[in-house]
Structures are given as C-alpha cells and as structure tokens.
Amino acid sequence: RRLAEDVESRADVPAAAAQAAHDAIFAALALYLERENAVWLGETLASTAAAVTAQPDAFLCALEQRQSLAALDEEVDAMLCAALLHLDDEPRRVMLLVYLGFPLFDIATLPLLDGEGLDEFDPIKVDRISPTDADTIRRGGAKAMLRGIEFNNFGAFFSRAYRENDYLWGRLHGADRMIDIVLSTLPPADQPDERQVLRYKCAAFRAILAEEQPKLTAIADVFAAIERELAVCESAAG
C-alpha cells in the first residue's frame, strides 16, 4: 500500500524502479501465501494436525519444518533489498521504514483486529457530486442553477420546465465531477494541465446538450444561457 501511495505516484521515481519494487513485493507475498495452502503443506502435516490436541508440540515442530519461515525471511530480505537498490534515497527510506517497522505495527494491531477488518486503517475517500463542486459552467451552487429547490424543495412538482432544468443541470454536473474524479486517480506526473481538463469537460457538455436539446422542449431559454456560458469556457480552454 505504501508503495502505491507514496512511491509509484512520485514523479521523481523512474517507472522501472517502481515496477521492480512492485514485482519484488508481490513475489515475496506469493512465497508466504503458498505456504498457507493445504496442498503445499502436504498430507503428512495434515495427519499430524489431526492429533494436535494430544501432541501440539509435534504439530508445531512439523509446521515449522515444512514452512521454513526463518529461511524464507532471509530470502525475502534479499529480494527486497535488491529491488530497493533501484530507488533513490527518499523513496527507499519510505519503503524500508514500512518494511522494518511492520512487526511493531503488527504487534500493536493484530491482537485488536484478530485478523479481521485489516482495512480499518485504510483512508476513506469521499467524492461528492454537487452543484457546489461542479462549477465549471456556472458558479453559485444550487441557488444559481436549480429550480426544484423553490417552494420548500417542491418546486419541480409543479412545473415541467423546472424538472427539465434540474435534470439537464444534473447531467452537466455529473459529467463535470466524474471527469474530476477520474483524473484524480492519475499520478501527479500524468495529470493534464487545466486547459486540457477544461477541453475534456467542454466536449462532454457539448455532447450532453446535443443529446438533450431535442427532448427537453420546455427550457429553450436555459439552453441558450448555457450555450453562452459554455462558449466562455471553450474560449478559456483555447
């Protein structure tokens, strides 16, 4: 996780170096995970496990011998060291601190989680689709664009034009925010500049207007107003 969040997204980390670290980490994980597989552990250990309540020491010794985790730890250390040598000092420091510090983290959290809910420590990211955030065409939030908020939020019940207005703005706002959300997943080095983002949005807005104008016949004035504001956006996009 730290590799994905703090190293792979850095503009100063060569892609080949990040990929080498990525491959080493997942290759190491595979070595540990295969040792949890009943097929890998074998039938001999299964028969020893059947008598674990009577002879727990025999089972633990057999498990230790079969998994050979101490030897595997040394092998994995060598794999990761070789991969991390490709990174510069700062990203290498990040990865070493996480790897070497994990036993301390594990000691603190494993008794609390008991192997469940390990994702409790993942940050939860929230993306909102709202007129307040989707302000590429027009600023001012819901009051500047939506009509259904009138009459104590019952305005659209009494007017087809109001419903058409709010539906159209809903599509425009959705496209505006979805483009922001998709672009937010890109690493900083791959982010397009503001004018390119604006061009993407204007193209989406144009497509929505072209699709909806023949169907939404009660809001010709709204289309005209949006067309004027969209022309300003397109001029800014270049």
Fold and architecture overview:
- The protein is mostly helical and 238 residues long.
- The chain is built from 11 helices and no strands.
- The longest helix has 25 residues, at 89-113.
Compact overview of the structure:
The chain is an all-alpha fold.
Beginning-to-end CA distance, first to last residue? 39 Å
Helix content: 55-70%
Strand content: under 5%
Low-confidence stretches: none
The value of Rg in angstroms is 29 Å
Structural class by secondary-structure content:
mainly alpha
Order of helices and strands: HHHHHHHHHHH
Mean pLDDT: 86
What is the number of E strands?
0
What is the 3D shape?
Answer: elongated
Sequence-ordered SSE layout with sheet pairings:
Blueprint: H1 2-7, H2 15-34, H3 38-50, H4 56-67, H5 69-84, H6 89-113, H7 142-145, H8 150-153, H9 160-184, H10 194-212, H11 220-237
Helix pairs in contact: 2-5, 3-4, 9-10, 10-11
Output the keywords.
11 helices, 238 residues, 0% strand, mainly alpha
